Amino acid sequence: MKCFYIALLAILMFSGRSQAQEKSATPVKHKKGQTEQGATAKDGRRVGKWYFYGNNDELELTFDYDSSRITYRPADTTRYLVRVGSQWELQHPTRAPRLIGSSRQRAIDIATKLRYPVVAMRQQQQGRLVMSFTVDTDGHTKDYIIENSVSPECDQEVWRVVKDLPDNWIPAVYQGQLVAARFYVVVHFRLSSELSPGSLKQGGLIAGLPPIAPAGNHFVDELIVNGQISKQTYIR
């Protein structure tokens, strides 16, 4: 009988610890503008469920770091550029590829780290830079290519920032197989003297520009880097 009570006490203690751990990993109520929520261990590792939010504060992904499983993602009927055999095709994958993280936070990270190169401003170089890359079947990126260049300095700046971003993706699944998918980063380098009121759409997209990838896609990050021409720009 004594052994029975000892065993029961051990079970209750273990159950209490499990409930406490689960409770500590539960995020607080989402705040407007917050891009992600979750708990971290003492060594900085993410643990338990993490919640990631998009531009309109919508929940776009829940990922359990303990089991490495997706526990929530909204339906996605978008077509993506996926590699089928030796060809790139615009298809509706069974599972869409996406970053394990917040798309909004990714855009913020790119925007806050990018700088307009001084040399490019001196030479009044501006335009639309397009970089493409592949999310491979192992969930990592490769094959970064500058599809449309603005200047060597602008190209290098985008390379520097994008290659330093978190590289942890959910690979695409098409016809029961893991497949590679193609993504794009579009950066508009614009000098302030060339911008006019109303030339920008909400979200930083420039009106009237043709899409760089097929219409209706969700695989383009697009933003603007503004440069200010001044006397100091030319004196340096």
TrEMBL record:
Residues 1-20 form the signal peptide. Residues 113-191 form the TonB C-terminal domain. Keywords: Cell inner membrane, Cell membrane, Membrane, Protein transport, Signal, Transmembrane, Transmembrane helix, Transport. The keyword Nucleus does not apply. GO terms for biological process: protein transport; transmembrane transport. It is found in: Cell inner membrane. GO terms for molecular function: energy transducer activity. It is a single-pass membrane protein. It holds the Pfam family TonB_C. One of its GO terms (cellular component) is plasma membrane protein complex. InterPro entries: TonB-dependent_transducer, TonB/TolA_C, TonB_C. Gene3D superfamilies: 3.30.1150.10. Belongs to the TonB family. PANTHER family: PROTEIN TONB (PTHR33446:SF2), PROTEIN TONB-RELATED (PTHR33446). This is Energy transducer TonB.
